From TrEMBL:
It comes from the Bacteria. This is SDR family oxidoreductase. Belongs to the short-chain dehydrogenases/reductases (SDR) family. PANTHER family: 3-OXOACYL-[ACYL-CARRIER-PROTEIN] REDUCTASE, CHLOROPLASTIC (PTHR42760:SF40), SHORT-CHAIN DEHYDROGENASES/REDUCTASES FAMILY MEMBER (PTHR42760). Signal peptide: none annotated. It holds the Pfam family adh_short_C2.
């Protein structure tokens, strides 16, 4: 009796039957997401532009057959279409798409050109929409699935500019936050639009997760730490659980949600 009553809960986070596609899977945050998914049995396909960087990131640490690379430039529709078709041919129908990659141009808040502003918007919101749109036929063919977009704490709150007084090179530009806010709304829109088709659309908003190169500036790291309730910056593995959860059966009744993983940054 006890074992049968517990059976529905035994595999809530088991991803052994899931084919998960992720853009930006070999970057600072992406590698933590990928490793978390692999640890729970998923088959992962990284969509990216640099296969050599992919191989260098995951050299000799991944179970055979569990991790793959497909060339893709998320800035162009033909490349996204070709990559998804290749995934279908080589690995079957996907269960999950994670929109994690980003690109941008320009930083000075009051001096961005029209072209820079447009590229920053496209690099987060436009690319997420592009990949979402193109993956839908495959998810529909599969009877449903999940889409997870990656936003940011700066899609929720404005920067504390005092943190950047002595470190202007790290200043977060306005088109980044505007684009990430758009990603959150895009998530809600398509969660509503696709719910009847058994497609859940959710979002993760990371907080202060500076890259290794930024972490070399210890003074700036200290500025971030003192502004965060948990008193530290995020590590890539701090994100892994959020993505395992949103990819797994545990989240099958969750859609349109923005899961904030920020050490408490946005509660103040």
């Amino acid at each position: 009796m006890a074992s049968s009553s517990l059976a529905p809960y035994a595999n809530l986070f088991d991803l052994t039957d899931r084919l998960i596609l992720i853009t930006g899977g070999y970057g600072h945050l992406g590698r933590g997401m990928v490793r978390g998914l692999l640890a729970h049995g998923a088959t992962v396909v990284v969509l990216g532009r640099d296969e050599n960087q992919f191989k260098a990131t995951f050299a000799e640490e991944i179970p055979d057959g569990a991790l793959h690379f497909v060339s893709c430039d998320i800035a162009t529709t033909p490349s996204v279409q070709a990559a998804l078709a290749a995934c279908r041919e080589r690995h079957g129908l996907p269960h999950v798409l994670i929109n994690n990659a980003v690109y941008s141009a320009g930083q000075q808040p009051d001096a961005l050109t029209d072209e820079q502003f447009a590229r920053g918007l496209d690099g987060s919101a436009g690319s997420a929409y592009r990949c979402l749109r193109e993956v839908l036929p495959y998810l529909r063919e599969n009877g449903g699935g999940k889409i997870i977009n990656v936003a940011s704490m700066y899609g929720l709150v404005a920067p504390d500019f005092a943190a950047y007084d002595e470190y202007p090179q790290f200043l977060n530009p306005p088109h980044y936050g505007a684009a990430k806010a758009a990603v959150i709304q895009l998530t809600k829109y398509f969660a509503s639009y696709l719910g009847a088709e058994n497609i859940q659309v959710n979002c993760v908003s990371p907080g202060p997760f500076p890259s290794e190169s930024v972490q070399a500036e210890s003074g700036f790291v200290a500025e971030l730490q003192k502004r965060n309730p948990l008193g530290r910056i995020g590590r890539p593995d701090d994100l892994a659980g959020a993505f395992v959860y949103l990819c797994a059966a545990a989240s099958d009744f969750v859609t349109g949600h923005n899961l904030v993983v920020d050490g408490g940054w946005t509660i103040r």
